[in-house]
Design goal:
Structural class: alpha/beta
Mean pLDDT: 92
RNA sequence: GGGCGAAUAGCGCAGUUGGUUCAGAGCGUCUGCCUUACAAGCAGAAGGUCGGGGGUUCGAAUCCCUCUUCGCCCACCA
């Protein structure tokens, strides 16, 4: 076959992917082999491929392909996630562009639009994965909202409800006012923010001039005086009219309409005078009590806390404790509600600005300080979260934490890198209930059905039944007293949908239908899955919860190993983002460097757990490597074979050596894979191919120009090539398939994908490898002399070995060929005018006649002498230390003695050489 | 505020049980080469008192303490 000098991925990759598909080579069915299962972390159904996916999916594909070549039944299950809140947002945005508001649509109409959008954009990302070379079993492609998965979700909800692990309740939740839904704690991202601390006056409800409760040492401050929060006596604020007031510090003055009390710490000496009093909420003029609770920090602000139970988590707790009313002053979109009484209809942040002005004008603002605090934002819509009292569905998590913590802590499930075990433990030991309901339509609708005729019952007390279907709901409802004859159309299903992660946590089970059809052949064969590859950012969202569901529903782990990837950043260390424009389109990269090149570029810099700084030049390196492989193949396939010739001595030596080297590296690669050191494994194969095979082995066996190669060397070389391709295949599937198919005629449907990766015996000859390193060093030294003296490559040289060397002796043919020598002589003294060098304790020399530069040679020898004397000194320091000789292990001392002998012998040779030159 | 992790060559990193093999490979840089597979290449070379300080030890990149800097996660001081 005629091969171009440059490898062209575009002509190769599509062809082989099609071949793999046509022959159904990714397909997996349970059989007698050991299973190797991976479930893909389902990307958002309407998403497109980004660099993070490239990293993640490449790692998975490498692991899957490797397992397949190890003879396991590899099954990689692909699929997508309905991504409830993100997708609903996209659909709403698209509808808005057409002038349609969500509120104008019925649920059914909206869902039709959502499904249209999903059908249109869904699966684009899966197609892109094919271009990357991912060997997923596409027949198994699943969607978190397809029928099988949806049924699983509903079934699990009902089951957990029946077990008492799901409850409905009025709780303070994280409210996203943009999407108008509750969120789980994990969906809130906290940002540092520069804001203000506002000090507000709450006048005491009493006549001007009152002194009730004041002690003799009280410090009376006028409005303008600063106060010290750490003082140990009363501080009383009094205005010009003699009216006393409390000062309350808050970051959110717009919530004063919801104030229902002011709280002080009973141990706070500053504020004891406020005990039992009532104060007037500024502007609102509501009279509220002073309550006391040790929750209040004495030294924060003034030690007075305004209590707004409806809009702050802690205030809510106080409200519960002291049985205070909660006034919800916000609408679901975070505008001020009727209940606020003031500023009704205004946005919360506009209201803050306005109320600050109004407080100032009314002389109710004591002062304003700069203040840094943390504000929670919605992960999806990026608007500030509003803590909101709302009726939601929750999962009791303590039970799940109890079953999910031990298997990770005792390494039944292994985390790579292990540092994430700590993160995992922290979360589980401080677990809080999981809010699973969302006020969204795109998702699995909560299977709770409310009984009729409850219009006058408060929401929280309405009766309902939970059931997988409406029919079962009716059955259940009829068991309730007074509803014996209820019908389906009288029941009202809960409007909410479930958190997306409530379906994701079942993924490793639901993909094999293990929920609907427990104990089926597939779930029994493929579960637990083998490796999960994902980012540490979803360790709580997903990894932990899958472990919980796994033990709850199958009594076993969902996966044996978790490989946490890093975050892909640009080469300056910045997160990749659309707004920065620093995120390359993976498909452009594939066009430019080939999928194999991009995969390699990604893996060259991706140690587990570390962030990876992605640089396009790494793809270039990947592409260059592909080209190298291609050209090696071109070289070998270009040789003509002489059927009668026997291998040359150099070739015979080369084969023995490479055989050993190949085995050694294969073992190293095995070891790296067993530890999930994938970059290291790739680097080992890269060095093997480029340095050992191309630069050394091929050069050693290469026939002279115009000559043929003997049959045995040729066949052996192709066998090595075949094996090297197998080692490379998991990393770069396309080029390896292309070349493997061209090594010899292959049967239809045959593929490198299934060639065993461990065909060569495990015996390696370490002595041979070590000796050959010495030989390489000799050759390099001769080459360096050539370069220094400007001796052309084609000019033959003579090598002298002073005193001979037993290690190097068997390799004379190789040295002669690689260094282009005419002769190798063992001499007792080197020739006049020879450039010399030392390898180990042996001196070598290359006679150069008049090319010899005596000065330069002397300098080189003297430098070496200085170095050798230095090492001898260090060794002697150790050996002269009685403690060292007495306490260090025998072997270590012996090693030092050998070093001493070597150094002494080397010094002697160097001195002799110098003397000879000077003589 | 609590926790976890990191700091090694110009860059991004490896270094497992303290000792031969420990101070490493890759990229980049420098020098010389279009040598009959590959310039997306070949040959050769230079680069680091392992963040600072202390300690343990015969011996420390490695173990301990401390400081500095950076990163990440968690947490209700309004």
């Amino acid at each position: 076959m005629e091969l171009a000098s440059k490898y062209s991925p575009a002509q190769v990759e599509g062809k082989w992917y099609q071949y793999w598909m046509d022959n159904r080579l990714f397909s997996s069915k349970p059989d007698g082999r050991e299973p190797y299962t991976v479930v893909i972390p389902p990307p958002n159904v309407t998403g497109v491929l980004h660099m993070g996916h490239v990293l993640n999916e490449t790692i998975q594909d490498i692991l899957v392909r490797r397992a397949r070549m190890e003879g396991k039944n590899a099954c990689w299950v692909p699929g997508t996630d309905h991504a409830s809140i993100a997708t609903e947002a996209k659909v709403i945005k698209r509808l808005a562009e057409k002038g349609i508001k969500k509120s104008d649509l019925t649920r059914e109409e909206f869902l039709r639009h959502a499904w249209d959008w999903t059908d249109e954009h869904g699966g684009i990302i899966l197609k892109q994965l094919r271009q990357l070379g991912c060997s997923c079993d596409w027949d198994r492609t699943a969607f978190t909202m397809d029928e099988e998965r949806s049924k699983s979700v509903i079934k699990v909800f009902c089951d957990l409800y029946d077990k008492g692990l799901i409850y409905r309740g009025l709780r303070m939740v994280n409210w996203d006012p943009e999407r108008q839904t509750a969120l789980s704690d994990e969906e809130v991202i906290y940002h540092d923010e520069h804001s203000h601390l506002f000090y507000l006056r709450y006048y005491v409800d009493e006549p001007a001039g009152s002194t009730d409760g004041e002690e003799p040492d009280a410090q009376v401050l006028s409005a303008t005086e600063p106060f010290d929060p750490t003082v140990k006596h009363q501080i009383i604020h009094r205005d010009a009219q003699g009216r006393r007031y409390a000062v309350v510090a808050t970051t959110r003055p717009e919530t004063i309409m919801g104030d229902i009390a002011v709280c002080i710490n009973p141990k706070d000496p500053k504020n004891t005078w406020l005990r039992g009093k009532r104060v007037i909420v500024p502007l609102v003029n509501r009279v509220v009590p002073i309550i006391e609770d040790r929750y209040v920090e004495i030294e924060f602000g003034t030690g007075c806390l305004k209590v707004t139970p409806a809009h702050d988590v802690n205030d809510y707790a106080l409200g519960q404790k002291y049985n205070l009313e909660a006034i919800d002053i916000f609408n679901p979109d975070a505008t001020l509600s009727e209940a606020a009484g003031l500023y009704v209809g205004m946005d919360r942040f506009d209201c803050r600005k306005q109320i600050v002005k109004d407080l100032d004008a009314a002389a109710l603002m004591e002062k304003v300080e700069d203040y840094d605090n943390k504000v929670g934002y919605s992960e999806r819509t990026n608007v500030p979260i509003e803590p909101r009292l709302s009726l939601q569905w929750f999962i009791r998590m303590q039970h799940f934490a109890d079953i999910a913590l031990p298997p990770v802590m005792n390494d039944d499930i292994r985390f790579y890198p292990t540092k994430y075990k700590n993160t995992y433990r922290m979360w589980l030991e401080n677990i809080k209930d999981w809010c699973i309901s969302r006020q969204l339509w795109w998702g699995h609708r909560i299977p709770a059905y409310f009984l009729p005729n409850q219009e006058n019952v408060p929401d929280a007390e309405r009766q309902y039944v939970v059931a997988e279907t409406i029919d079962k709901a009716v059955e259940k409802a009829r068991l309730i007293k007074g509803y014996e004859t209820v019908t389906a159309d009288q029941l009202t299903q809960d409007e909410g949908a479930l958190d997306t992660w409530f379906s994701s946590w079942l993924w490793p089970i639901s993909l094999f239908d293990g929920i609907n059809n427990p104990g089926n052949d597939e779930i029994r064969y493929y579960y637990p899955t083998s490796d999960l590859v994902t980012g540490p950012d979803i360790i709580f969202f997903w990894v932990a919860r899958m472990i919980m569901a796994g033990y709850e529903y199958l009594g076993d782990m969902p996966f044996r190993n978790v490989y946490f990837t890093g975050i892909v950043r640009d080469k300056l260390g910045r997160k990749m983002s659309k707004s920065l424009g620093n995120s390359p389109d993976p498909l452009d990269l594939i066009d430019k460097y080939g999928a194999d090149g991009v995969r390699m570029g990604m893996m060259l810099s991706a140690p587990a757990g570390n962030d990876i700084l992605f640089d396009e030049s790494l793809c270039e390196q990947g592409r260059n490597f592909n080209n190298k492989i291609w050209n090696c193949f071109r070289l070998v396939k270009g040789w003509t074979v002489d059927e009668k010739a026997a291998p040359s001595e150099a070739a015979a030596t080369a084969m023995r050596w490479f055989d050993a080297k190949l085995k050694q590296t294969a073992a190293l690669v095995d070891d790296h894979f067993s530890k999930y050191r994938i970059s290291d494994a790739l680097m080992a194969v890269y060095n093997l191919f480029w340095d050992e095979f191309s630069a050394w082995y091929l050069e050693m066996i290469k026939p002279a120009y115009g000559c043929a190669i003997d049959r045995q060397t040729y066949d052996t070389t192709l066998r090595y090539f075949d094996y090297l391709l197998r080692l490379l295949h998991p990393f770069m599937p396309f080029i390896t398939e292309e070349l493997w198919q061209n090594i010899e005629e292959r049967k239809a449907g045959e593929s490198i994908m299934f060639q065993p990766v461990s065909v060569i015996g495990s015996e390696t000859d370490d002595n041979l490898i070590r000796d050959f390193e010495t030989v390489k060093e000799v050759i390099s030294n001769i080459r360096a002399i050539r370069l220094q003296k400007g001796v052309a490559q084609k000019e033959e040289l003579v090598l002298e070995i002073v005193g001979g060397n037993a290690v190097v002796a068997p390799y004379q043919a190789v040295i002669t060929k690689m260094a282009n020598l005419s002769d190798i002589n063992t001499v007792s003294e080197k020739s006049q005018g020879a450039a010399s060098f030392m390898v180990g304790t042996t001196e070598y020399a290359v006679p150069l006649g008049n090319l010899m530069d005596v000065e330069a040679e002397l300098k080189k020898l003297n430098d070496e002498l200085t170095y050798a004397e230095g090492s001898l000194r260090i060794v002697m320091n150790k050996l002269n230390n009685a403690n060292f000789v007495a306490r260090a292990p025998e072997a270590v001392v012996a090693a030092e003695r050998k070093k001493q002998a070597d150094a002494e012998s080397r010094i002697a040779s160097l001195k002799a050489a110098i003397a000879a030159l000077q003589g």
